[in-house]
Amino acid sequence: MNIAVCIKQVPDVPAIRIDPSRMTIIREGVDSIINPLDVIALEAALQLRARHGGKITVLTMGPPQSEEALREALAYGADEVVLLTDPAFAGADTLATSHVLARALSLLAPFPDLVLCGRQTVDSDTGHVGPQVAEELSLPQVCGVSEIHLEGSSVVVKQVSEGLIYTLRVSMPALLTVSPELTLPHHCPLANLERAFTEQTVLKWSTRELGLSPDEVGLAGSATRVWRLFKPPPRRKGEVIVGSAHELVEQLMEKLEALSILDEETGSE
Amino acid sequence: MKHRESLISAHHNYLVDDMLTPGFLLGELSSREEFFFLADVVPSGESGPRISGRLFDREGRFLVELSGGEMVQNPSGCTLQSFSGGFRLIHPSGETLLNVNTHVFTNGFMTRIQGRLFDHNGKLRAEPSRESIKISGGGKPALEKPER
Amino acid sequence: MNERSYSGIWIFGDYRNYFQNRVTLQLIAKARGLARTLKTEVTVLLLGDHVHQYAMEYVAHGADVVMVVDHAALRHYQVETYTKVVAGLVAEYRPEIFLAGATPFGREFFPRLAKRIGTGLSADCVALEIDPESGLLIQTSPSFGGDLLADVVTPDHRPQMATVHPGVFEEQPHNGSAMARIVYPQVEIESDDRVQILRSRAEQKGKVRLEDAPVVVAGGRGLGSREHFDKLFELAELLGGEVGATRPAIRSGWAGNERLLGQTGKSVKPKLLITIGTSGALQYTTGVQGSETIIAVNRDPDAPVFKIADLGLVGDARTILTLLLEKLRKRL
After folding, report:
1. Taking the model in full, what pTM does it have?
2. CATH, range C210-331
3. Using one digit for the tens of pLDDT, what is the confidence trace for A175-214?
4. Which site from A144, C1, C64, C130 is most exposed, i.e. has the minimal number of CB atoms within 10 Å?
5. Minimum distance, in Å, between the CA of residue C206 and any CA atom of chain A
6. CA distance to partner chain C, nearest, from residue A85 (Å)
7. Where in chain C are the domains?
8. Contact residues on chain C for B45, CB-CB shorter than 8 A
9. Alpha carbon of A22 to those of A27, A79, C265: distances in Å?
10. Mutation choice for A interface testing from C144, C149, C283 by most A CBs within 10 A
11. Residue B15: closest CA among chain C residues belongs to which residue?
């Protein structure tokens, strides 16, 4: 069973800084990681491969430094990794991003049985790319799966949605986005990491290899524009108190009283 | 793309030809002897449908007049059977002329009417359609305010 | 953009878990304000099987028009089937703005629909306004777990689509005297059976439902040991809440994965969050910063968790937790 996993490199910072002149986020000097839910998607792919065999291809669209994320994916165990990179891709919204990813996936031979990605990213948070790639490739989709089992030419998945657990059969090829309950990522052995960075290759595709024109991608291929980026007004007045344990607990109790938490009956409903 | 349109009330609607409508009138109210059938608009505050009408058979013979959920004239000897949520009007021959059934929602009501209605000329003016009733001939298909 | 103009504000009627899930009603109320500015109408689009009751509810809460496609094949929310029907309706009726609640279904369905139509979509918006100069819909969408807001517009594509965070706008009260128009488009329905629902069941009662708990008590590595972490359970019970944990606490084996809070775990918005011995890494805080009130306990006065707390207590997590429990046992 061949699986493609779409990942995204995201910034790993406790606080975001904005460049007001370009209305973008400052990424220079910021550490990057693979979006945590994409790591879970990759782990799920590895588990499926361990059980059913096949090839795992990991793709990402991003600036040249996204190659690091792909090398990490190799270290985790991906068979093949593809970097979709081109200055023309900059400023893409999910419409344009999904177009690039879908085109790249359509060039994989054989076409994957499953396309996996994280349900959403820690940065843009939209959760749109999965469904939009599925739409462009005319694949059935299920978002936020917590279990995946292969059954012949279908997968049976579980999806928890608003208090209900759905068990669904999806015919392949299909696209699934994964939820955190699916699995925990395993640790990556250091030796693998070294090899991934020194010995293995990363395929690089630009608009040329993908057969795309500049107006289909990046900002030009996007339907939305960001007019303004801003931090929300601080919602917390945030008193920080230092004192003895007794004083601190006093303050805590007062706060609980003020919130009427202590008036209610004990125990949950 | 074709579409059909009606009005809809927040409080109570009849299901007519698979569409919701606050009320409808077949025929005219003005005459004292001719056919009419009125499923009137139910004002917010009331909970039952307002059904009245003068019904005839396929030969154009007068059967029964309904008003306020009661038979005010009944030359043919029909029976009015109440049940929880509605009523049934039955002809001595055993045929159900009219079946009126009200569903209660959390914040409103919906009434399904089923029946085969003929006017004073013996013309078919209403007949069962899937889950509701299909109406034809002159009248007002979507009332906004009570007629009576 | 096509020459024929687009007008009207549409809202996707998401009635799953209605009467609890009221986001459609909230959107109707907000859309009425936008419609006044644009001098247009609010239409709620309703797909399903026997959905009469919802049509009436939407009218009662302010819709000008309800557009209904009532068909057995639409009984279950199904992404591909719904996408096909709705894309066809959008092509026919050309709404200028199309909104949906950011419910789990909305967040799977609306992006696919926007892609099929070929238009822009913003996610989980917390504000919507009409720009007075351009007439465009300004969609305020959060990113980085809410740490950053973006005002997004869709200048050249229509409709302008957005999913909206539940609870941001306030619904209009129920008005039983309301009347509106109802439209029944005649559409062909084709079920897409590539995704089949085999079964569905309610999540088990008694299972950890962190998302519903009014109080969440969360612990991290600062608690030092399983023994101390376990005290959180008593605290939760005394306060009528549930216990959550950070990834380090779960890695240490103090709690199961179902209690994980944060980006790769659960997102919670309780009335009160007490977070003890947690440093406040971004991946954790994105899952809890929506809480109404946050009380944080940490030994380090510079811990990032204090940035999101209403009340921050600098002290040893274990000591404070033990003392708190003593006082609460006496008090309650």
Report:
1. 0.87
2. 3.40.50.1220
3. 999 988 888 777 777 778 888 888 889 999 999 999 999 9
4. C1
5. 10
6. 22
7. 9-183, 210-331
8. 176
9. 12, 38, 33
10. C144
11. C52
